[in-house]
Amino acid sequence: MKHKIMAMAVALGLALGTVAGMGGAIAADVKALRDTPVNAADKAPDTYKVQDGVKHERAYRQQPPLVPHDTAKYEIDLKVNQCLRCHEWPYSDQEKAPKISDLHYLDRNGVRQDTVNGNRYFCTQCHVPQVDAKPLVENQFKPAVTGR
Amino acid sequence: MTNENQTPEAQTPAVKPKSILAEIWGLLRRPTARWSLGAILIVGFSSGIMFWGGFNWAMEMTNTETFCISCHEMEANVYREYRGTIHDQNRSGVRATCPDCHVPKPWIYKIKRKIQASNEVLHKVLGTIDTREKFEAKRLQLAKNVWTSMKETDSRECRNCHTFSAFDLSRQQKRAQARHDEAMEEGKTCIDCHKGVAHKLPEGAFNAERELNETWNAVHRK
After folding, report:
1. pTM reported for the whole predicted model
2. In a domain, A140, yes or no
3. Does A56 reach chain B within 8 Å, measured CB to CB?
4. Are residues A84 and A63 in the same domain?
5. Do A110 and A55 reside in the same domain of the chain?
6. Which of B85, B173, B201 sits opposite A79 (nearest CB)?
7. CB of A32 within 8 A of CB of A38?
8. Could you tell me which residue, A40 or A35, shows the higher pLDDT?
9. Which chain A residue's Cα is nearest to B179?
10. Rounded to whole angstroms, how far apart are CA atoms B192 and B179?
11. Given a cut of 80, is residue A25 above it in pLDDT?
12. Do A56 and A17 belong to one domain?
């Protein structure tokens, strides 16, 4: 019995070792699109400055408007949403910031509420800032023209 | 009371026995016959330096980040939130740690703040915020305390580094330019806008901010 278990353990170890060795061989042969070998860590991406004060056109009608400023440091959690400090009424008037559309105040039954509804609360899920980065891969994307 | 001097044949006015205070006063007033003026001066100066220096040294010991976060109340709450913010980590590694923002630099205000801190020691002993829940419950009040004192001092601790008159608006981003220009005209102070820069905001922060501004303006702007 003991010998059997030992033999199985050795066989398993050998099998795993072979697979691991082959894995290494495969990794060296694979040609990846990125510069780094597939089994190495990616190098850190370049950093770009957020485009501040730039008006971004929408690419299609339903697109959530893009944010013309950095949002990385804003606290958006259960306690506080710092976006609302400028974009919710009455702050939007004081701060001369775009007012949140009334659609964000509808609850899931379509009833108007007085506060931004939970399902639209996390602004940065849809509204994101843009950096001045060139596309990584050339493409022929063109914005939609519906309704123009 | 002794009555040795009150015998009728003495006829001198009664000499009152000296109290301890009077004796000490006498000792301080009486010129010494044993020590030279030079010795007294040398000993006086050097012990003065030692005590004064020692006092300030000990006070500076309580003015370090390490000291602040030696209490878990500070380490587990406000310090962890501060980690990674612009005042903790940035391109050039210039840091503003706890005492840079929360303890005044001028000596007289520093002493005042340090005396106030004895109240914080009391609450450390009482365990007022010794759990996360207790801290969160008290957080709005604590934040309001700091906002109010920052408003009262015209954000003195911010301005130790951020000198308003040295702002080069032309090198700021468009929005910052406009808002800083406005703030200078209106005589606003840093904390009016820059809340929650190094720590998370408490729940109800915006309402508290509005109330604070209203009461402040009612008193200070007529």
Report:
1. 0.77
2. no
3. no
4. yes
5. yes
6. B201
7. yes
8. A40
9. A95
10. 12
11. no
12. no
Tell me if A53 and B206 make a contact (CB, 8 A cut-off).
no
Is the CB of residue A82 less than 8 Å from the CB of residue A74? yes
Using a CB-CB cut-off of 8 Å, the residues of chain B touching A82 are 196, 201
- Identify whether A135 is preceded by a cis peptide bond (ω within 30 of 0): no
Q: Determine the residue of chain A that is closest to B195 in CA distance.
A: A82
- Domain residues for the domain of A16 are 1-43
Nearest to B202 among A52, A79, A85 (CB): A79
Query: Which of B201, B209, B217 to mutate against chain A (most A CBs within 10 Å)?
Result: B201
Q: Do B173 and A53 touch (CB under 8 A)?
A: yes
Tell me whether residues B175 and A73 touch, CB distance under 8 A.
Answer: no
Q: What is the mean pLDDT of residues A109-130?
A: 94
Helix, strand or coil, per DSSP, at residue B142: helix
Is there a single domain that holds both residue A56 and residue A99? yes
CB spacing of A80 vs B173 below 8 angstroms: no
Q: A71 CB near a chain B CB, below 8 Å?
A: no
**Whole-angstrom Cα distance, residue B73 to residue B122?**
13
- Label each residue of A96-113 as H, E or C: CCCCCCHHHHECCCCCEC
Dist. CA A77–CA A91, nearest whole Å: 19
Q: pLDDT tens, A5-22?
A: 777 776 766 666 655 555
Q: For residue A144, is it within any domain?
A: no
Q: How many domains are there within chain A?
A: 2
Q: Is the residue at A138 inside a domain?
A: no
Confidence of residue A141 (pLDDT cuts 50, 70, 90): confident
Q: Do A75 and B202 touch (CB under 8 A)?
A: no
Examine the domain organization and report whether A37 and A62 are in the same domain: no
Tokens coding B186 = 């209106």
Length of chain B measured in residues: 222
Beta bridge partners of A26: none
Task: Give the residue from B121, B128, B75, B124 showing the smallest Cα distance to B98.
Answer: B75
Q: Write the ipTM.
A: 0.74
